Amino acid sequence: KNYILNKIKKHIHPHNFELTGITPIEKVEHFIKALHPYQTNHKLVRLGPMGDGGYLVPDDLDNIAACFSPGVDKISEFEKDCFKKGMKIFMADASVEAPITNLSKNDFSFIKKHIGLTNTDSLITMDQWVKDAGISQHEDLLLQMDIEGAEFSALTSLSGETLNDFRIIVLEVHWLDHLWDAVAFKHISDPIYKILESHYCVHSHPNNCCGELTLNGISIPRVMEFTFLRKDRVSNKTFSKDFPHNLDADNTSHS
Questions:
Q1: Most CB atoms closer than 10 Å: which of 32, 185, 235, 247?
Q2: What is the pLDDT of residues 109-139, one digit of tens each?
Q3: How deeply is 108 buried, as exposed, middle or buried, from its count of CB atoms within 10 A (0-12, 13-18, 19+)?
Q4: How many angstroms separate the Cα of 10 from the Cα of each of 20, 28, 122, 179, 219?
Q5: How far apart, in whole angstroms, are the C-alpha atoms of residue 113 and residue 25?
Q6: What is the DSSP string of 56-90?
Q7: Which residues contact residue 3 at a Cβ distance below 8 angstroms, ignoring those fewer than 6 apart?
Q8: What would the pLDDT profile of 154-172 be if each residue is shown by its tens digit?
Q9: What is the C-alpha to C-alpha distance for residues 255 and 249, in angstroms, rounded to an integer?
């Protein structure tokens, strides 16, 4: 136990934060197993580039009304591909003035706000954002979220009703090396377990940007991408066995 504690302090808490406790290995293993992706009746396709900003999604994209994409980076090729599939595009980010995209301004909506727990001048909840978008009630949506660790608070405030509107969820999850910290484990795992109540994980991919942490014989990438598909869209499933998927690509040339 002291070895694990010292390892956590060194790699996760370098500034001498006090730990409230170490997550039992059984909880970490259960969380990892819960995220083992399924192969379903929908093959995976890639939207966006071969590299960072591109993601694998199930080929179940017909009649999705809109893509909600919080977190605007230097490229918006994923959103562009969603637009080509007939989706309305909604983007949000308080850290930029506008997304960099060659889409016409009439082809997307952008708000200069972060997604968070409440509604303020600079924050908006997922529920309020979807409501303000004026999408017809209970039309299927797609969520692509990469907001640098703020995903946990954004998902915590997401109602079950709005969550179920998202047929597909693409999520980049940060801080996974903190799973051994008992408080961080709950902060990270609770919103993911919330998604798994209504959706299956259908793809996982480690982002090679940030390395991994190995403790208790378990190597955990610090950042991972997951794709989820709502359970009512799945007619059959088996555990995926091929890793990486042949459409996967490194996020960066620097690991």
A1: 185
A2: 999 999 999 999 999 999 999 999 999 888 9
A3: buried
A4: 15, 19, 35, 14, 16
A5: 38
A6: EEES--TT--EEEEES--S--HHHHHHHHTT-EEE
A7: none
A8: 999 999 999 999 999 999 9
A9: 13
